[in-house]
Amino acid sequence: MRMTQGCFSFLPDLTDEQIAAQVQYCLDKGWAVNIEFTDDPHPRNTYWEMWGLPMFDLRDAAGIMKELADCRRVYGDRYVRISGFDSSHGWESVRISFIVNRPREEPGFRLDRQESVGRNIRYSTHAYAATRPEGERYADQ
Amino acid sequence: MNVQQSMTVRGKDRYKSGVMEYKRMGYWEPNYEPKDTDVIALFRVTPQDGVDPTEACAAVAGESSTATWTVVWTDRLTAAEKYRAKCYRVDPVPNSPGSYFAYIAYDLDLFEPGSIANLTASIIGNVFGFKPLKALRLEDMRFPVAYVKTFQGPATGIVVERERLDKFGRPLLGATIKPKLGLSGRNYGRVVYEALKGGLDFTKDDENINSQPFMHWRERFLYCMEAVNRAQAATGEIKGTYLNVTAATMEDMYERAEFARELGSNIVMIDLVIGYTAIQSMAKWARRNDMILHLHRAGHSTYTRQRSHGVSFRVIAKWMRLAGVDHIHAGTVVGKLEGDPNTTRGYYDICREDFNPLHLEHGVFFDQHWASLNKLMPVASGGIHAGQMHQLLDLLGEDVVLQFGGGTIGHPRGIQAGATANRVALEAMILARNEGRDYVHEGPEILAKAAQTCTPLREALDVWKDVTFNYESTDAPDFVPTPSMAV
Asked: Which positions fall inside the Ribulose bisphosphate carboxylase small subunit domain (chain A) (predicted)?
């Protein structure tokens, strides 16, 4: 399966040139670009690991692409996303977020159902990969 | 510069028993400067033939505040001058002989804090049936910050909604389940699942899906949540479906909303026809229960559509932002329902900005500060399809839910394909916009390119390529831009 979080997951994987253009868009808007990675793709896993701090002062897409290359070298078997953070009043949150790296195989999610009172069912979603400890989840690839 | 004189009778003569013209009773004060703390209303007043326009406008001020048809001595037991609404400006409506814009200021003490019901009981209470008027329309209102701050505002707001859904940088995508009546719970959930799995973020109950013989509400909720959770696991993305909790009584609505919460829904829905008080109750419930609150503006066109009489939708949008809903249908411009581009732009600004500057070409008559009240997500729904994506993004921006009901479910290869077509079209357009391309003009090319790697999009473009709804709008702004002198 293909996990479809982020802004561009329904398009073919972005090339580095396309990623750089999106990064430049964020920089032109004055947003801080952030690189994050994870091997737990659960839809409610909010806090992916940060590859350093958000780059508040970096104004050059090439510099961010170099950081991305470094991140991929270490965590190329995990999900990596780029986000643009807008600190202006009234927003103070993420403005855009998109995936720039994926594990080669995405085994997807298991949906568990627990029958409850009446016909009520409690649902929970498990990433198959997350049954293994962090760091070993996509290790076979 | 206002050279008109006040006609107000003062002192003892003002309270002589009998009938006195409204403009002489203190409801016409051309030299009054509205205070920052006043509520201001702008009415379009069309007096009956032979009625003096100033008197008609003063009567609107009177009948929407303290006046009755005759002088009463009991006014003298109050600080009557403070409580009188004051019409301070009357302008002829451009290109509309016989109609006048009346600007009326109301002291803040006339209103109960935090109550849309109280506000509307004054402003659109008795006065709309007043005999000396042929027609009356409430065009716009200005609320002072002190009053705005007495309202909760949107339970969730655009920013927190996006954070909860983990969706940033693009409009959200939705679809209303069709046919809107007749599906059983089990069949209904099938449509929800297909649409969400195919790529939509939300699906939606229609306004009149409540609890009918073909589908009891609990059936709908149970099957819909199965569909939402299945789609979430199939995509790794957060999904939602607006469960319509509209019902006959507040008790029923609370029961339905609580069941939705129990099942893990992240959003519930209400219809405008439940009334302002019920809407505010549900907004408070939604905030207490971490729930996004969708409002379907069912019924609004009965009073918003005609320019001569009723209430402008921009006023309804302001009331609903105060009342505290998170989503409101605000027009598509290009779709099947009424919507002039400039007027619609005005509605969207009212929903989404922290400050609305006066902008007559968009029908916005006042500066409005929202004092950090949450932003309200506009929803565009009705007769839109993937082939219009560049226009929709240009006209409506990024913070909007685009709802393609027919444009998803009517896809020749099925609902999932329809949803995928919409999602791919949207992502391709955002990508192109962010790359700095002239996406409005190159839109068809961008879509055609994206369709090369997405068969469902190609099929959608083929089926709906020429569908447009070009009819003249019945509610365009009165002020059109005039070219300014070149300097």
From this structure: 4-103
Kindly report the nearest CA distance between residue A13 and chain B, in angstroms: 12
pLDDT tens figures, B67-101? 988 999 999 999 999 999 999 999 999 999 999 99
CB-CB: which of B229, B264, B420 is closest to A10?
B420
- Compute the count of residue pairs across chains A and B with CB atoms less than 8 Å apart: 109
Start-to-end C-alpha separation, chain A: 16
- A16-106: CATH, from 3.30.190.10, 3.30.70.1170, 3.10.580.10, 3.40.1440.60: 3.30.190.10
Please tell me which residue in B149, B178, B284, B369 is annotated as part of the active site: B178
Give the CATH fold of the B26-149 domain: Alpha-Beta Plaits (3.30.70)
| C-beta atoms of B222 and A92 within 8 A | no
Residues 6+ apart with CB under 8 A from B218: A119, B259
Specify whether B309 is catalytic. Answer: no
Fold of B158-464: TIM Barrel (3.20.20)
pTM here? 0.95
Q: 3-state DSSP call for residue A105?
A: coil
A114/A128 Cα distance (integer angstroms): 18
In this structure, is the dihedral angle defined by the CA atoms of residues B333, B335, B339 and B340, taken in order, positive or negative?
positive
Q: What is the pLDDT of residues B335-362, one digit of tens each?
A: 766 678 899 999 999 999 999 999 999 9
Between CA A131 and CA A138, with CA A134 as vertex, the angle to 5 degrees is 75
Residue showing tokens 């007096």: B47
Q: Which residue of B has its CA nearest to A121?
A: B263
Q: What is the pLDDT of residues A25-57, one digit of tens each?
A: 999 999 999 999 999 999 999 999 999 999 999
Helix B276-288 / helix B116-123 crossing angle, nearest 10 deg: 160
